[in-house]
Amino acid sequence: MTLIKAENLDKIFKIYNQGEGIRGYLKSFISREYEEIHAVEDLDLDIGAGEIIGYIGANGAGKSTTVKMLTGILEPSSGKIEVGGRNPHKQRKKNAMNIGVVFGQKTQLWWDLPVKESFRLLKEIYEVSDEDYDERIDEFDEVLQLSDFWNQPVRKLSLGQKMRCELAASFLHHPKIVYLDEPTIGLDVAVKERIREFIKKMNREEDITVMLTTHDIDDIEDLCERIVVLDEGKKIYDGELDALVNRFTSRRMIMDVRNGEEFDLDLDGVKEIEKEDGHVEIVFDREIISASSLMREVLERYDVLDFQIKEPDIESVVKKIYNEGLEEE
Amino acid sequence: MNMKKYYAVARNAFKQATAYRLDAVTTFLSSVIFLTLYYAVWSAIDASGDIQGGLQQVMTYLVAGQIVSNAAFLQTEQFIGYRVRKGTIVNELKRPLGLMSHVYFHELGWVVFNTLTKALPIAALGVVFLNIPLPGLVNTAYFALSTFLAFNLVFLLAYANSMLVFWTKVDWSLRMTRNTVTNLFSGVLFPLYLLPAGLSDIFNVLPFRAMADAPIQIFTGQASGIQVLEIFGLQLFWIVIMFILAHLMWRKAKTRLTVQGG
Q1: Pairing of strands A2-16, A78-83
Q2: How many separate domains does chain A show?
Q3: Which residues of B touch A125 (CB under 8 A)?
Q4: Is the ipTM of this complex over 0.85?
Q5: Residue range A112-123, pLDDT digits in tens
Q6: What is the pTM assigned to this prediction?
Q7: B261 chain-A contacts, CB cut-off 8 A
């Protein structure tokens, strides 16, 4: 069942140029020159209930802008969005009752008040009953251990503690969708793991759809089956994580070979051979030639002293995407 | 409209305000200094000639002005400006609340705090040290209502003004400008009844009078009977106008948010 649907979504920002120096500054009062930035371009999304979607891309790729449009905060320049059958911008408040949002590093907690006061306010805002609220907080406490700092003013909390609160806050009212914009940024490994465990639990037990933007490889690997990759506002990949990894990283066979300088291999599926002082690296495509048959071929011809196979990892895929977009090798 | 939601916002704002108790003390002290200074100045003027209504009436007017302006002292520009600059305004916009009502109830929480920690102590001070006569029970109620209307007006002006933050990115100077202009034209700085006729006409067509002079007149007893109703009418009139202005400003600011990014 489709829960979030976006068609031909476009978002153009105007960035006003302020000239250099005093002259430029004064000039900017009279003539308003601006550039148009295409933050999101012709984006289609179709996200079903209960999915965890990893929404990835380099800084400035348009991830946050998309989230702001899906949550109804920003109006698209053109295109159509439906979230649970509603236009989230036109019916922002109604839509807001059914969603939870965490904007990483932009805390919604009341700085000088104990944590619990921020939650009590959310309870009223999202019309959560007393009973449900107590149950919910107990449940969250088990995974996120909120009671450690429940009565402390927010300003005294660590970054990790604040993020645990933010996360709990976004799930408090049993939303259908939770948008998490960089929820693990700057956190230590233990907190990250706890947060992931929590997201998984919520998704599994309540079928809450989660859209996660992140730069954290482990977040993606641990949580997302499906990912959407954005590059300069355009969607460049939408599908299973595994397929992406297989598609964009070839495996490597690394060997030490006697008389390695003369090494040569002309086989289908072998893409590249790098040689250096008897050290040979073969880049090959697993879809065409398996590692075992490649090894067999090599062993028939050469004297191999040592070898290892390097598996593709998401990290290199993601790095590659961030650095150079999604061009095939 | 589910009032519980908004009550919760006001309650949290009040609790937050109590974290800044020291701020309340300093504001109160600045009011004391203001009144002491003005007492000296107006005594001198009184000694050198006739003031219409006498010194006592001037001081009653000024004390009432301090009560009103302290109760309705708002820093809406900072509230919104901080959020716009840091981008955390998205947190207000992601919630099932309207931004204007959200901010309104937040400020209402502050007004309750201001009234308890600043306005009421000033009233007590005025009674004890300056022999300010308090209005009767009915007039006190009218005064409270009129002060509440004044707060609404100050809020709407401050809200409209704070929408400029979307363009200027600075908030402090916006609030200072609004504060100075309001103080000057509203009666907080000097009694408006002392103005000569020509000047008085100018003050009459401006909205600021309804932000302080209106409740002050009820406090001092200058307005009574049907005049009190007229004062309420004037205040409501300006509230409607300011409400429309604030709404237009917010709509304009929203497009700004949307064309320039959060």
Answers
A1: antiparallel
A2: 2
A3: 5, 8-9, 95-97
A4: yes
A5: 999 999 999 999
A6: 0.87
A7: 13, 39, 65, 74
